[in-house]
Amino acid sequence: MLSFSAVFNVKSTKRALTHHIFSYKTLMTRLFILVAMLSASLSMTARDTVPPDTIVIPDYIQFPGDEGFEPAMAEIDATIPILGLPEIDVERMYRFVADQNPDFDRKIAEAFYEIGHDYGVRGDIALCQAILETGWFAFTGGTAVTPDQHNYCGLGVTKLGMKGHSFESIDEGVTAHIQHLYAYASKHPLPSGHKVIDPRFKMVKRGTASTWADLNYRWAMNDKYGQHIILLYNRMAAFRF
Prior knowledge:
mainly alpha; Lysozyme; about 45% helix
């Protein structure tokens, strides 16, 4: 028959053993989580060595009458090339935005159309990207960017509260936006006679995003970023005025 002391020692040993097993399991769990986080980080780095250009955006821009409507992002084809000529005219581009924001400056729509054409970038779709980044060019929703900065795509806004880059005019701000898209979509030099306006142009790994879907997790930390842009474009193409 075991003495009280022996029984106590056995119980103490079991408690100590249980404690060590629990500590080991806890350590292994934490190690597993750490490895998973590191793996995800390395995966993002392998995807693109340049940090995203903007912060996380809302899931999608809601239109009047859309309450309760969730667009099926998986059904939206965002593999449309970034490079190409516009398929929507300036009037429709302007009217589409002005319908949501009566203060929208028509010169912005004209700049996206014309400058996009100069670079061979889809300026009509780039305008939709700008809608997403600026909230219909109203610069609301908590952004620190202000209209006088002419920053229509959140360049340099890598966390909440940052104002990002500023540009002297509408044309300069739109040019920076179009050049940034051009840097992602093409490995060619800028068109003859054009100088670099985009302050992040050289940070881009050239030619890594040929379609709007390729901007997911690159331009913004959102896995449906390109789909949101094309959703707006589809709405613009179907817009009646």
